[in-house]
Design goal:
Number of strands: 13
Strand order of the largest sheet: 8-9-7-10-13-12-11
Number of domains: 2
Distance between the termini: 10 Å
Structural class: alpha/beta
Radius of gyration: 20 Å
CATH class of the largest domain: Alpha Beta
Length: about 300
């Protein structure tokens, strides 16, 4: 049997470049991309996607939808790294550690939608706690996250690394209209009954994310405390290769969270910081927005899908 053909559509963007870098030396697949002169040719793109076994779409949302519409070969499987299909029926959500059996669902899926970077952290923290009943579905969730500027794509990289880099902002909060496109994805896949408040920001570092969710214990069941929340997360991810829950004795001595500590990996670190005196708990996720938040997750999903090739 010949090696499966993996076509990367959009391999010149920040996510596509990193996926290509992670896959270029693999001998178990045949990597396919388009030459620069062919990338905007609809006929050539349609030919390439219909000739592959698995297509990885690293495209803007509209272009990703067009690429999927161009598929006429029923054997073609898709990993979409855009946000076009993350809440759409018929697509398998590509977060293997999210729920029991999710990795198997991804392995057998025809259409996989890669999670957004911010939702990976938010859902990773919230879904196990909601499923266990430790956080009610109608809890007024607030999420704050700071990403490296590569989260803006080429525009962010150019602003901070191009000719005008000296004028780039050191920190900027955005999404002030509280309508960030990741919010419905977080709500749906975390299992929230109400839309969370999500406030994102960019820092003057290339990649990495710190995402935090504060909780008021008085709004939870009377017996729920930080240790119980931590134990739930630790149980859920006990066998996960790429998600680690920091032990409480380690988190209690931390003085800060470094968003860049896991850069270049496909790993995510979750922590629980309880303050029982005030009845507060802070949940946190640290990971690479271009790793577990994008290209690393796509390659992890590809590896699962290849087991069923």
């Amino acid at each position: 049997m010949s090696s499966p053909v993996v076509f990367i559509d959009g391999d010149q963007g920040t996510t596509g470049l990193q996926i290509h870098e992670r896959l270029r030396d693999r001998t178990d697949i045949r990597l396919s991309t388009l030459a620069a002169a062919e990338r905007k040719d609809p006929r050539r793109r349609a030919e390439a996607i219909n000739a592959c076994d698995i297509a990885i779409l690293c495209l803007p949302d509209a272009a990703a939808r067009e690429a999927v519409d161009a598929i006429v070969n029923p054997a073609v499987r898709v990993i979409d790294a855009s946000s076009a299909h993350r809440t759409q029926p018929g697509w398998t959500y590509g977060f293997p550690e999210m729920a029991l059996g999710q990795a198997e669902r991804i392995a057998n899926a025809r259409r996989v939608t890669n999670p957004g970077c911010y939702p990976t952290g938010a859902i990773g923290l919230l879904r196990p706690l909601l499923q266990a009943g430790l956080i009610p579905g109608n809890y007024p969730i607030s999420i704050h996250a700071v990403s490296g500027y590569s989260g803006r794509g080429r525009a962010g990289v150019e602003e901070h690394e191009g000719q005008g880099a000296v004028n780039a902002p050191s920190y900027q909060v955005y999404g002030l209209e509280l309508a960030h496109k990741h919010t419905p994805e977080i709500q749906q896949h975390a299992g929230l009954a109400q839309r969370p408040i999500f406030v994102p920001a960019y820092g003057a570092f290339r990649q990495g994310i710190v995402l935090t969710v504060p909780l008021q214990l008085r709004l939870l069941a009377p017996d729920v405390d930080g240790a119980m929340l931590h134990a739930c997360l630790a149980r859920h991810y006990a066998e996960a290769a790429h998600v680690r829950v920091l032990p409480l004795h380690e988190s209690c001595v931390l003085k800060h969270l470094d968003p860049q500590v896991l850069n270049g990996t496909n790993d995510m670190r979750l922590s629980v910081f309880p303050n029982m005196e005030h009845g507060h708990v802070l949940l946190s996720a640290v990971f690479d927005n271009l790793g577990k938040g994008a290209s690393g997750a796509a390659v992890q999903n590809l590896n699962l899908m290849l087991t069923q090739h």
